[in-house]
Write a structure and sequence with these properties.
195 residues; globular; 13% strand
Length: 195
């Protein structure tokens, strides 16, 4: 049992979110996760748009791990990754790419992912990947809880009101950013005429 996890989380069943359109890969990953002894539910979205719609829904539970395929229908995995990484509620949640693409260009598009794994038909390689998932959960979980708690306590950001600050539907768009007047009032202007 990891001592770094908060007490309320130690007995909790893990929740993984997977965006994958290949049912065979979903079954194989489920089997590898179960074989590795991870007690986890795996929620699956079959395309990128559906994945993003579910993940950006404020009522959707925040998963412990997000697994994305690069080549998804309707919206590419790297686009889903970008949106997730720009959403404050997912700070500290590990996001991994699990894809058949080994292209350097695709890896670069996914550079903000916590890990990038290339699918293979090798069972031992799949188990190695799943062990890496376990490692990410042990390292990231305390970070995620601390980050969310600190941001809430310190009010690092505050949500904007419906109207000029945003619609209330997108966490990044709704952040309250200081106006020009607020920024000017925060610091003394520099006097360029002084010698």
């Amino acid at each position: 049992m990891a001592t770094a996890s908060p007490p309320s989380e130690t007995s909790k069943r893990a929740h993984f979110f997977m965006a994958e359109d290949n049912p065979g890969d979903v079954v194989l990953l489920r089997e590898a996760i179960a074989f590795s002894g991870i007690d986890a539910d795996i929620e699956v979205a079959v395309d990128g748009e559906l994945a993003l719609e579910q993940l950006l829904d404020p009522a959707h539970a925040i998963p412990d791990l997000i697994i994305l395929n690069f080549n998804l229908p309707r919206l590419q995995g790297h686009q889903v990754l970008t949106e997730i990484k720009n959403t404050p509620r997912y700070l500290g949640v590990p996001v991994v790419m699990f894809t058949s693409s080994d292209a350097q260009r695709d890896r670069l598009l996914c550079r903000t992912a916590d890990a990038y794994f290339v699918k293979s038909g090798d069972w031992s390689e799949l188990l190695r990947i799943v062990r890496h998932f376990q490692g990410l959960l042990k390292v990231q979980a305390p970070i995620a809880h601390a980050t969310q708690a600190e941001l809430s306590k310190d009010q690092f950001w505050k949500q904007g009101d419906i109207g000029t600050q945003g619609t209330g539907g997108h966490a990044i768009a709704d952040l309250h950013l200081p106006t020009v007047a607020e920024r000017k009032g925060a610091v003394e202007p520099m006097d360029d005429s002084a010698d």
